[in-house]
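forwarding from the other thread:

> can someone predict this with iron/sulfur cluster?

sure thing
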Amino acid sequence: MTTRRSRHPRNAAGDFYVTQGCCTACGVPESVCPSLFDSGADGHCFVSRQPSTPTQVDGMLRVLRTQELDCVRYAGREPELLKRLSEAGESGLCDARPIPPATLVERVRVVVGAQGGAGLTVEGEARALRSGLLRLLDERGRGTGIELGPSGASFRVSWFEAVFHLVEVRALGDAEGKLEVLHEGPVGLSDLIDDYLRARGGLSIEWTTRSGSHGAARPW
Ligand code: SF4
């Protein structure tokens, strides 16, 4: 059984597609994965090329878990892809029914330490992270100011209209001076934070769920 949606007529034939409908020209798919998306003069995006390599599949799945309006969907039945989307809480973007049961694994917490003993400060890292995320989001990104509180530092970031997501930086209080970064919103924000941390270098990085389980080097 499948859930059928109307497809944008310019989608490349295949399992991933953009639905036809009201479009706010958000620009998210083209920004996250420009090799697989294009858009018309009205700004309505479409899948210009279906993913054919593992890297391209990763890029496409990243779009599905970063988008705010759920326009991009998966109509295939590949068990591994259905599992990955289900684990990320995105089974609603799959046309296939029923979706095989999978444990929801939302890695929205990352524990960060400085390699080589350099110290990390909550406020300094929050400011650097905020700047780094806005730089990666380019003109799409907007961020609130840094707020300092008893539990750490926080700010909010948005890449679509006024949909802001909370990002918090806290000290773990361990001997190594590690910090934890937690966020609300889609798992795609984990990917963005991971991009920033890896580009920065010199850090130990471990992603977990909010409760600290399912530790992994990458968020997804
Ligand atoms: S993802 Fe949706 S809102 Fe954004 S450009 Fe594509 S169709 Fe428009």
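The first strand starts at residue 16 and ends at 18. thats all i got for now
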